[in-house]
Amino acid sequence: MKEEKCNITEDIFLSICRAYGRVHRPLDAVRIFHTMKDFQCKPTEKSYITVFAILVEENQLKIALRFYRHMREIGIPPSVASLNVLIKALCKNSGTMDSAFRIFREMPNRGCTPDSYTYGTLINGLCRFGKIGEAKELFKEMETKGCLPSVVTYSSLIHGLCQSNDLDEALGLLEEMISKCIEPNVFTYSALMDGFCKGGRSSQAMELLEMMISKRQRPNMITYSTLIHGLCKEGKLREALEILDRMKLQGLKPDAGLYAKIINGFCDIFKFQEAANFLDEMVLGGISPNRLTWSLHVRIYNMVVQGLCTNVECFCKRGDLHKAARIVDEMVIDGCVPAEGTWNAVVGGFWDRRKVRESTELLQVELMSEFVEPER
User: Fold this and answer.
1) pLDDT tens figures, 147-182
2) CA dist 372 to 176, 187, 367, 369, Å?
3) Which of 351, 352, 344 is CA-nearest to residue 328?
4) Cβ atoms 61, 54 nearer than 8 A
5) DSSP assignment of 54-67, as one string?
6) Largest CA distance in the chain
7) Direct distance between the N- and C-terminal alpha carbons of the chain, in angstroms, rounded to an integer
8) Residue closest to 347 by CA, chosen among 317, 370, 321, 320
9) Confidence at 123, pLDDT banded by 50, 70, 90
């Protein structure tokens, strides 16, 4: 394009930079920025701030701060836009929050008036590091200065209040938002639901789900996962399964972690047959554990098998023992090594049933030989 003498405008270069930012390649955005001069396109303040913002958004903080110093050295004056990005960079770490506030307080002296974005960034940073009291004070100051909080600012404060277990105050903020015609988003509702579920108030979390849907807000995987976890923790398995069904109807596919919560829930109330059924559903659905859920996956397999075998009713129902053996087979196929207690439970269960002694011997030969060294 350079050889063909095409006229490439600043906006075209910035579109390319933003595209690299969206696919998490900030250094390529910087490279494109540096090629602007080769095309006789002189970067303006807008270009510098755009690239600075991309670096901050992608957590390239050291490079971002060097880039900002370069901006100042070449004479680009501070502006509300550039200082907002700088404050956002400093709010990423608890150790630099004080510097963010110092710049915030100095903004009027530089001819820059903090706006809603400035306050929102600081409130988000304070909430992230557990400084809820300071965040609430800044929220009040923001309103006295005539800066209207956005849905993002409200959501940040609601999330912070939920993290500190101030659930009723968080709910009050939601009501305040709605009264001011600020529409809560999925993150707002999910943060509140998470707080209620962790606080043992899953019924209120369910009410929020209905409110959310009535407002035409579409729950996402995080929303459903939060609810299912909270309901399982309180032993409300029926409600958890209803949420799982709604999630599937919406076209969202449960992952290994979500199945683990439900299976754990059934194991906690000693309903091992139901747990095994969900384990089957998970395997048949082709849902495999990832690195993070692998150890949980193994533990759940062991829990279900041992539960099936040690449950008193299990020994009265031949089907349960065979189901336990089949699950052990699936464990081996999936590459999971059952714990010693699992082998003992399955083999012991069959051994106590004299009619299936031959099956037990086959099970011992087939499975135990794979993992237990023979006596010498």
Assistant:
1) 999 999 999 999 999 999 999 999 999 999 999 999
2) 64, 50, 9, 6
3) 344
4) no
5) HHHHTT-HHHHHHH
6) 90
7) 77
8) 321
9) very high
What mean pLDDT, rounded, does the chain reach? Answer: 84
pLDDT of residue 355: 45
Helices and strands (H, E) in the chain, number of each type = 21, 0
Contact 287, 280 (CB under 8 A): no
- What is d(CA 365, CA 360) in angstroms, rounded to the nearest whole number? 9
The tokens of 329 are what? 């087979």
- Among residues 71, 32, 35, which one has the least CA distance to residue 52? 71
User: What confidence score (pLDDT) does residue 286 get?
Assistant: 79
**pLDDT over threshold 50, residue 317:** no
Question: pLDDT digit string (tens) for 29-51?
Answer: 999 999 999 888 999 999 999 99
User: Cα–Cα distance between 341 and 271 in angstroms, integer?
Assistant: 19
Alpha-carbon dihedral sign for residues 198, 201, 203, 207: negative
DSSP state for residue 77 in the 8-state scheme? P
pLDDT in tens, 60-83: 999 999 999 999 999 999 999 999
> Residue 375 gets which letter from DSSP?
P
Q: What is the rounded CA–CA span in Å between residue 104 and residue 87?
A: 7
Q: Is the dihedral of CA 283, 286, 292, 294 positive or negative?
A: positive
CB 314 within 8 A of CB 276: no
What does the pLDDT read at residue 365?
44
Q: Token pair of 257, please?
A: 């972690």
* Residue 338 C-alpha from the chain's centroid: 30
118, amino acid identity: T
Q: Exposed/middle/buried for 219, CB within 10 Å: 0-12, 13-18, 19+?
A: buried
| DSSP-derived secondary structure letter, 115 | -
**pTM strictly above 0.85:** no
Which amino acid does the sequence have at 76?
Answer: I
Compute the distance between CA of residue 320 and CA of residue 304 in angstroms, rounded to an integer.
11
